[in-house]
Design brief:
Elements (H helix, E strand, L loop, with lengths): L8 E6 L8 E8 L3 H11 L3 E5 L5 H9 L1 H18 L4 H18 L6 H8 L5 H11 L2 H24 L3
Parallel strand pairs: 2-3
Antiparallel strand pairs: 1-2
Helix pairs in contact: 2-7, 3-4
């Protein structure tokens, strides 16, 4: 705002999946009319989902989606590596892991209870619950929390570095 003398500002934060028209884009505005916002949304809508958010939420969005897509890739890399280490050929391992992540994504929408989906896959004494329990005991939530925290902290640092460039 200081740089543009109170001009109209639209800030967009896409993820890389916009390259395949299946991305997500956060949008914040300053001093823009609803008509101007609607025009921008119409322009970028073919690239994926649009999320109109408050500027104060942008760094959380970056962690969840802008950078978050890379975190999912990292999980896929680790899953693939482990599948290979446990005996699958590399090409099959990558394909199977890609399918698992894609299938899981297809099962979820804005109203889905993810725990319910987990419950549908697990049985009390089965293999899946054993793996889920191992994930939960390994403090996966804490790891993800620290990942978000570090990402948001770095986004804050980058934002602050621009404040002195008036």
């Amino acid at each position: 705002e200081r740089w543009f003398n109170h001009r109209k500002i639209i800030r967009l934060m896409p993820n890389t999946a916009i390259a395949k028209n299946s991305g997500a884009i956060a949008c914040t505005t300053l001093n823009c009319t609803q008509e101007e916002l609607d025009s921008i949304v119409d322009l970028i809508q073919p690239l994926g989902n649009i999320y109109i958010i408050d500027e104060s939420k942008m760094n959380a969005y970056i962690a969840a989606n802008g950078s978050g897509i890379a975190f999912v890739y990292e999980l896929m890399r680790v899953f693939t590596k482990q599948a290979i280490e446990f005996g699958l050929d590399e090409s099959i391992a990558q394909s199977v892991v890609q399918n698992a992540f894609n299938a899981a994504s297809q099962m979820v929408d804005d109203n889905t209870d993810i725990q319910m989906l987990i419950d549908q896959v697990t049985s009390k004494a089965g293999t899946t619950i054993e793996g889920i329990n191992t994930l939960r005991q390994s403090e996966l939530e804490s790891i993800v929390y620290k990942t978000y925290e570090a990402t948001i902290h770095r986004a804050d640092e980058i934002s602050q570095s621009y404040e002195g460039l008036e």
